[in-house]
Write a structure and sequence with these properties.
- Its main location: nucleus.
- It is found in: Nucleus.
- One of its GO terms (molecular function) is ATP-dependent activity, acting on DNA.
- By secondary structure, the protein is of the alpha/beta class.
- The protein has a single domain, classed as Rossmann fold, CATH 3.40.50.300.
- Strands 1, 6, 7, 8, 9, 10, 11, 14, 15 and 16 form a ten-stranded mixed beta sheet that branches.
- The longest helix is centred in the C-terminal third of the chain and has 19 residues.
- The radius of gyration is 19 Å and the shape is globular.
- It starts with a strand and ends with a strand.
Length: 302
């Protein structure tokens, strides 16, 4: 598994990422041009007009779910992370958001569902934790995994690709290159296509540009949202992002990124963790099929 440094450099050179994507970094005086190039056109976004039967058929036949491996969350969401949709997990620090991401990535690898692309914005990706989760999973019902433990772990770890990215321009670059690679059918491992895109955390990239030195920060945030939802829908991916909490006044907290971002995720979960415990609570804030306010307990294995 390869991890490549993300973020915008000062030169116009490029690096090759862990999934073989050629990445380019624009000079700072070209940032606005880069942003405009990565904004999807109206034609790309609309694509075609779907009637009700087309949408129903697509939802029932193509848009399946990817289990996270955390029983409580999977039960709450009706099976897991739905393909074609963007799911957000939000919560305070140390509530278990990254653990949900790591378990989701590991479970997709173990169940041989496809390639996982993990975009790490805060150095939270832990390959040793991934290995521990995989080693602790029962693989007796999985075909093709009658290998020695070390060889089996190596095979599974190769299907999880980690990229480090530390600013919004690096994110635009990676997402653009990912879309190009998906269109040319290049993002594969062992014949499997990418099935899950994880960004932990998206707020680390977006919060600094909102209301700061970037006057177009909010439009850049919406551009990222449109690209993510377009990738999810057109390539049948599950997209999982994490967000942090901010003060809402009077001692209350709310998800970061404001009202503009609030409308973006198809599914929004807030999680909390009991003090000095691995027992967590997940509550539905938003869902395309479920009522808000549904709650469940789940355990993060140690």
């Amino acid at each position: 598994m390869a991890a490549a440094g993300g973020g915008g450099g000062s030169g116009g050179g490029g690096t090759t990422s862990g999934c073989g994507l050629k990445r380019r970094y624009a000079p700072r005086d070209q940032e606005e041009e880069t942003m405009n190039q990565d904004q999807p056109s109206k034609e790309d976004w609309c694509g075609r007009i779907w009637n009700g039967m087309d949408l129903l058929k697509d939802a029932t036949e193509n848009k399946h779910v990817l289990p996270t491996g955390l029983e409580g969350i999977d039960t709450l969401l009706g099976g897991g992370l739905r393909q074609g949709q963007l799911t957000e997990v939000t919560g305070p620090s140390s509530s278990g958001k990254t653990q949900v991401c790591l378990h989701s990535a590991s479970h997709a690898a173990v169940k041989h569902m496809g390639v996982v692309m993990y975009l790490d914005t805060s150095n939270s990706f832990s390959p040793s934790r991934i290995a521990t989760i995989i080693d602790g999973t029962n693989l007796s019902d999985q075909r093709g995994f009658d290998l020695p433990p070390k060889e089996r772990l190596k095979t599974l770890m190769k299907s999880i690709i980690c990229e480090s990215v530390f600013d919004i321009f690096g994110m635009f670059d990676i997402l653009h290159q990912l879309e190009v690679s998906l269109l040319s059918d290049k993002v594969k491992s062992g014949g499997k296509k990418i099935c899950l895109l994880i960004i932990d955390s998206i707020s680390s990239l977006l919060a600094p540009i909102i209301g700061g030195k970037y006057p177009q920060g909010r439009s850049m945030m919406i551009s990222v949202a449109m690209i993510l939802k377009k990738l999810a829908y057109e390539h049948n991916l599950s997209v999982l992002v994490t967000n942090h909490m901010v003060s809402a006044g009077n001692g209350a907290v709310k998800p970061a990124l404001g009202e503009s971002w609030k409308a973006v995720p198809h599914v929004r979960l807030v999680i909390s963790r009991e003090h000095d415990s691995n027992i967590c609570t997940a509550t539905v804030l938003k869902h395309t099929q479920l009522a808000s306010g549904r709650t469940t307990k789940f355990v993060i294995p140690s």
